[in-house]
Fold:
Amino acid sequence: MKFAFFPGCVSRGGCPELYPAAKKVCAQLGIELDELQDRGATCTGAGVLQEKNQFLGDVLNARTFAIAEGLGLPIMVICSTCQGVMSQANKRLKTDPNYLAKVNEQLSEEGLEYKGTASPRHLLWVLVEDIGIENLKTYVRRPLSGLRLAPFYGCYIVRPSEDLEFKLYRDREDSLEKVMEALGAEAVDFPGKTRCCGFPILTINEKNSVQMVANHTSSAKELGADALVTPCPLCHLNLDGYQPSAMKQTQQDINIPIIHLPQLVGLAMGFDPKELGLSRHIISTKKVLSKIQVAG
Amino acid sequence: MQVIVSVNRFDPEDSKGKYWQDYNLEIGENSTVLDALIKIREEIDGSLAMRCSCRSAICGSCAMRVNGHARLACNTKLVDMTDDAGMIKVEPMTNLPVIKDLVIDQQMFWDKIKQVSPWLQSEGPEPKGEYVASNESMNHLSGVMACIMCGACVSDCSALEVDKNFIGPAALAKAYRFVADPRDSKSVERLGVLNEYSGIWDCTRCYECVEVCPKGVGPMDRIMALREEAISVGYDNTIGARHADAFSDLVEDSGWLDELRLPIKTVGIFNLPALLNFAPVGLRALVKGKMPAIFHHNVPNVENVRKLFKRIRNNQNIDD
Amino acid sequence: MLEHDVLVIGAGLAGMRAALSAQEMGANVAIVSKVHPVRSHSNAAQGGINAALTDRGDDWNDHAYDTVKGSDYLGDQDAIEIMCSEAGQELINLEHMGVIFNRDDQGLLGTRAFGGQQKARTFFVADFTGQAMLHVLYEQLMKSSIRVYEEWFVLALIIEGGVCCGVTALEIATGRVYVIRAKTVIMCSGGVGRVFEPSTNALIVTGDGIGQAYSSGASLMDMEMIQYHPTTLKGSGVLITEGARGEGAYLLNSEGKRFMETYAPNMMELASRDVVSRAEQTEINEGRGVDGCVYLDLRHLGEDLIRERLTQIVDIGQDFAGVNIINEPIPIRPGMHYIMGGIKTDVNGRTNIPGLYAAGECACISVHGGNRLGANSLLDTVIFGRRSGAHAAGYAKDQEFPEFDVQGYVKGYEQKLKSLADRQKGERWAQIRNDLGKDMDQYFGVYREERGMQILLSRIEDCKKRYETVVLQDRGTIFNTDLIFTLELGFMLDCAETIVKSGIERKESRGAHSRTDYPLRNDKDWLTHVVVSKTDNGPEISHLPVKITKWTPEERKY
Structure:
């Protein structure tokens, strides 16, 4: 199994624990990665660049798709936001041939052309659709039994469901719970599961953003979760990085750790938590690690 | 088919508070959630209160939460919603107070709509005949005019959940209807108002409203269009506008995001209070080794990226 | 004391237009509506609004003639002339208010063809013209700050000394009874759809206003003229717009044949609605239908056109019939849709009760006579809504507020409602309403005859008896919908009775009233309106001559 790997910006910036964890897990699963950033692929725009200029955003993503097409490899991402932005751009490009032509006009200067065959997918979906749940179980060396985990998907990997082809791929809707259970843990259903972490308005309206962090982390804790698990590093930045602010703003003790999806898979595979960057979180992961009898 | 409709009920004249009541019924395979609720109120329990009228997704009365997400009861098929035990959960919409059972108080919803001055404001003397307008512009408006004011978007809005001052997706979509109407001459003023707190920049871009809208209005897409429009008419100094600008500049410069510089560029390097606000978070990140590298390298062949940005800007005649 | 110069009942197109018009004339006006204005059934109108624009080479006289012929010569021609001559200006008014009408290449208002008209003069917004107009009128209403008693249910009109003085109403959210005093009342409460089961109409269309006006002594006219819309879905009765046929859709029978060729070789699918419905019913009755339906075929129109101009019915086809209209024909059948009849008014909306006006579907002037042309209803609502509002405002200027025992009315109704709530033994509203609806559909369908209608009359009597001991299941005061449906049923029963009585009276076939026992039109004896008024001995029938101005009745062929 080989993929054109698109790690995104945050996994190598504000969440530097994610990128190596993802690579280690992929290696263990026998997934070969050809890294697109080494081939000049740009940021997806994260929806923010699209606010200023959607066409420009679509061109940048089409360029990444074209580069991957050139390698003859499908794209894999490790960020819900990358997934959503790429899927939305892809839909626009695939459904309107005139628009695609306009976009390709811009790419032609560089000698690139997007032919419309890309289907970027998150590692989460690759686990469920390509590796398969039963197969995934065979990689578990350290079952996460006893762990109660709250799945936090991140908006852009669940909405708009049409762009993410949920009707066609029915396993995507509860993919995170499926993976958690395959690794031996118990999935805790909570109101924030598919809600917004608040990251997009962090700089614009910090109070609202932090309130969202407070709501979701505290409701997960109240329902008995040991940790939240998220496939999105932007969500991680907010839920983990701004949890101290959330506790301050709402005057409550929360302190529930946020785990990246690859870190969870890595833990179950038997990797050392330090290798997976679990000591680098703002909210300590010591307690949840000790529950599966691992020193943090 | 057999279904169990579990309804979240509330009787204001009863001290019981909110409670779930399960109704078992036998109903046709092709039935909708509304068919089931009507059958319940006609044959089992006449005290079940809800609003409904047209049964064909045009009046907007029957919006409610089904299995946790807002939708119209009349165009939601039971078979699509029932779990393995044949059960569906029905609750009133959120973010608005409940009067009784599935009936919510719409006051806040309509107050927010009224806030955007939702009527055509054209300048100058009225023409004798119709205003001349392209069919393209009218067709474009029909997408947002399709809004039936059902409230589903307002119910599931993430921003409204934490801040009831946010004007909300329905009102903003309605505002867009006028900004995009070639006959309305108050765009700049409208955008000026929407540019302030509780307006277009307080949307958290979560796509809930797009997902739940039964008429494909795409409120969030309209909000993004309003943002683009606001920036283009000169409202470019909001944090949101600066954020989009900064993001774009940074990607143009190196091909990917420099997360260290992004917040600094967004708030402005001389904006000491805002910069100091980031300090605690930044410090924690530094201590844990989560600080982005100070030296931010470019992607290979970054010149191609810079040329691309420039070319597109020129083609679109955008000033930067 | 709640009081207004002009009180409008109903916040649909006619109601809001009347209120805006009355306010323009300086009246203190308010609207009372049992639902929020944008929930009104006007939003279900899909196809368009007719108007003859004289500066575009159209002549309102042609529109008037098409309307007169469409009405099967039962329409009052003076009223029709007014409606058609004022249509052009009103259309422009609506566009100025902001309605997003479709445009042609020049950016001017564009048209589509519609039933019963020789020239395309139907202006439209995709296929949701009613909703588009309703929402724009509501925008204007928000701008005007006219008070709306929202979700207030009118229990009855108040008539003192033979004059209409206001209403007694129930605030649904609280269950409290109020009197709203008014110098004039304009009834814009809509049609009677739910008296029939199935129907295209929304659940709120229960003939409340027609029933209330009737009980108060207003004359009703042409109640037997019930329109069956040619293209409705089986089972739910949901409407598929005539606009589909306007854009070129075909009607096919089980043999795949465009059967309209037999019945209306010139206008084909765009013949008058009663002609098309009868054609469909005949095909179905004679075994050339499929499962009680015929087919509406849009495939040849192409995806692009359908997606631009018929957007809503793509969703309707998918959601409510499981059919993709872009590449499958959709099974449809005639469904009860509209009542041409209603509260008798003059061209300014006045009824025979001083102070009481009526406009919109609940009124009968008559502009639609025996059959309403598609896209004339939206026109009717705004033209006569505007006229009634203006006239009522003018009339109210010279009136004092009527004096009467307000508390007496409040207490009287509180007592009535309490007695209803206290009753322990009896039948609930739902079964009575369903039985009534099914009987009306069976015996007062596209085709009727004496024996069936007499049976129907006795069935209505039975329902009325059952209603005398109707019992509530919800005895609460806050948002008691059980109570509302129970009250609505009373009005529905009165409407049903007047409909059938009128149907029995007219011994000919004209317009939508097709009798198998009197299959021909009989101008000699029946070029007249059937009027029904309430007396102590029950409904009393009389006749009223049809106003003929320019067009002599002739044979009606399409």
Observations:
- The first strand of chain C starts at residue 2 and ends at 9.
- The first helix of chain C runs from residue 13 to 24.
- Chains C and A do not touch (no CB pair under 8 Å).
